[in-house]
Amino acid sequence: MDRPAIETRGLSHAYGSVVALHDVDLQIPPGRVGLVGANGAGKTTLIRILLGMLTPTRGTAEVFGLDTRAYELEVRARVGYMPEGNCLPPDQTAADFLIYAAALGGLPSRAARQRASDVLTLVGLEEERFRPLGGFSTGMKQRTKLAQAIVHDPELVFLDEPTAGLDPEGREEMLELISRLGSFGIDVLVSSHVLGDIERTCDWVVMLEGGRVLRSGPLASLVDVDTVEVDLIDDPEPLIAVLVAAGAAVERSGTRLLVTADGKDPFLLVRDALADTGTGIRSMGPRSTSLEDVFLAVEGSR
Amino acid sequence: MTATATKPTTGRSLPDLPERAQWRATLAIAHKELDDAVRSRWFWMWAIAFALLAGVLASVALPGSRIAGSASFGRTAASLVALVQVIVPLMGLTLGAQSIAAQRESGALRFLLSHPVNRTEAFWGFHLGLSAALLAAASAGFGAAGIVTAIRSGGAQAGAFLRITLLAWILVIAMLGVGMFISAFTRRASSALGVAVFVWLAFVFLGDLGLMGTAVATRMPVDALFFATVANPIEAFRLAALGSFVGSLDILGPAGTYAVDALGPALMPVIVGVLVLWMILPSVGAWIRFRTSKDV
After folding, report:
1. Which of A118, B20, B151, B168 has the highest Cβ tally under 10 A?
2. Residues B15, A66: C-beta atoms closer than 8 Å
3. Which of B7, B114, B121, B292 to mutate to test the interface with A (most CBs of A within 10 A)?
């Protein structure tokens, strides 16, 4: 990793006797990063520390090499934040709210107006910009929150549960918007307990559980487990015997086999074993392990 | 910035945050607070009620103005002072009490502090915006009374009228500061509002009747009675306002006579100074509490 966008060392935080983060060491590269974990895993606490809104009990956190305690304003000038809860004033129009957010980001009045208009267009709310936010649907509110997070042109944006409460259509639109942020030069850290959303939008994953880091690494390295799934027509036992003798691990469920092999290509092993035993098959292919499988496996192994 | 701050290790230069930009954020927050207050039903309720009552009081108190002249203005001014003593503190206290606690409760404070805005800029932005809203509401009442007074008695007492207006402005900002002080220490807006109403009752009623009762029961010395009275910002306003159009506090009885004798020409500056201290100290206390608070 060249230069991490986010780095924490021994980061801990406690709310009284409740430990929210415990000795978190992270190095996260620029790009699209997913922060996954169940409710109470410490995701929001980590984000607030990274924004300089919370002072950690112990350890340090840096964003773009800036200590978040010493350079909180500089960090927040370069980072946008889409909070999970509702923070939208119901009486204000979307345009006024975005202009306000842009002014808080330090933009002069005219630039704030222009930027607010551009960003509302980007998130598909240009027709609704003069409507009070109180009358917005959940999807429109989420898009407004995303718009305010990027209105001051940050280099990185933290999105806290961006698809919470959205219907399938709204969720698709939000994920599409998140995917497009990279093309504007904005790195993304998405916090979510919906693992499918992370799988679709991110290329690096940090798994948190109980305030500790379970895994942190490229998504591909976590979910691309070499497993071959074979559905057989004939009796599986002869095939299983040959595969085990060849050093493969086989998991059977009826006529379906899941085959893995440490240090060997399971496809070649299965192909050879099928030829040796003359077993007929219905189908055969790679079984991609979802992020959810990995999360549950890692969590279960603790 | 701490001495042990980690140095930036990226090649990027730090974003430019000149002083002007920070003032821009404070002004943006103040502007939003003012907008929110003006959109609120409470603001209009206070402004209209105060304007109506002040206008009616001025009309009722001035019927003999063509004959009595300044004596009639005295009645109008006394009525206005009595009205201000009750309404203006309640306006300031309730608006201030709901400011920080309500923002914290609704998540608006978290939203605000996620931007490149520090707590000092946020606090004084709230204060500035709410002060502007309260001054506008108070001015509406004095404007109504002033128009009636000017029409019926001419502009002869304009100076005294403006002095009372100025004192009311100081009182409302002082009460805003007390309200924000309560708000800075309270997690829920409803709790802050409850405490603010209690404080208002203490200032308006207990500070007056309670002090009288205590003075009788404990045979409080006259100097202690005077300073205990002046320590109450509402009483300080009343004394300063009465002094500004009557010219002497002898009318207040032994305590007034003592004050005139003991302090002489320094009397009015002392009373106004107390009011100014009430305007500054609770606000600064609220700011310190908010600045050092970890709650978002």
Report:
1. B168
2. no
3. B114
**Is the CB of residue B195 less than 8 Å from the CB of residue B182?**
yes
CA A55/CA A48 separation, integer angstroms: 9
Q: Where are the alpha helices (DSSP H) in B107-220?
A: 108-113, 119-153, 158-184, 189-201, 211-218
Highest mean pLDDT among A247-251, A263-267, B161-165: A247-251
Give the long-range contacts of residues A254-261, CB within 8 A, separation 24 or more.
A255/A231, A255/A282, A256/A229, A256/A230, A256/A231, A256/A232, A257/A229, A257/A230, A257/A232, A258/A227, A258/A228, A258/A229, A258/A287, A259/A227, A259/A228, A259/A229, A259/A230, A260/A225, A260/A226, A260/A227, A260/A228, A261/A226
User: Are A68 and A50 a contacting pair, CB within 8 Å?
Assistant: yes
Q: Cβ separation of A76 and B116 shorter than 8 Å? A: yes
Chain A and chain B share a number of CB contacts under 8 A equal to: 100
Q: How far apart are CA A103 and CA B115, in angstroms?
A: 10
Note the pLDDT of residue B9: 37
Longest dimension (CA), chain A: 77
| Region B85-109 average pLDDT | 92
Residue environment code for B135-157, b if the CB has 16+ CB neighbours within 10 A, otherwise e: bebbbbbbebbbebbeebbeeeb
- Angle, to 10 degrees, between the axis of helix A138-150 and the axis of helix A109-122? 140
Q: Which ipTM did the prediction report?
A: 0.76
* 3 state SS of B216: helix
Cβ proximity of A289 and A225 under 8 Å:
yes
Segment A101-119 shows an average pLDDT of: 90
Which carries the bigger pLDDT value, residue A158 or residue B227? A158
- The C-alpha torsion from A257 through A262 and A267 to A269, rounded to 10°, is -80
State mean pLDDT over B243-268: 73
Confidence at B244, pLDDT banded by 50, 70, 90: confident
Find the distance separating the first CA and the last CA of chain B, reported in whole Å. 20
Phi-psi region of A82 (alpha: psi -120 to 50; beta: other; left: phi over 0): beta
Q: For the full predicted model, state whether its pTM sits above 0.90.
A: no
Please give the Cα distance from A85 to B140 (Å, whole number): 38
DSSP string across A99-167: HHHHHHTT--HHHHHHHHHHHHHHTT-GGGTTSBGGG--HHHHHHHHHHHHHTT--SEEEEESTTTT--
Which tens digits make up the pLDDT trace of B132-149? 999 998 888 788 777 777
Q: Which of B103, B111, B126, B290 to mutate to test the interface with A (most CBs of A within 10 A)?
A: B111
Cβ atoms of A257 and A251 closer than 8 Å: yes
Q: How many CB atoms lie within 10 A of CB B23?
A: 13
In chain B, whose CA is at the least distance from the CA of A56? B294
Q: Which residue has the tokens 């108070």?
A: B138
Rounded Cα distance, B181 and B189, in Å: 13
Q: Do B93 and B183 form a contact (C-beta atoms < 8 A)?
A: no
Measure the CA–CA gap between A28 and A250, rounded to whole angstroms.
35
The residue written with tokens 């109403």 in the block is: B197
Domain boundaries, chain B: 19-292
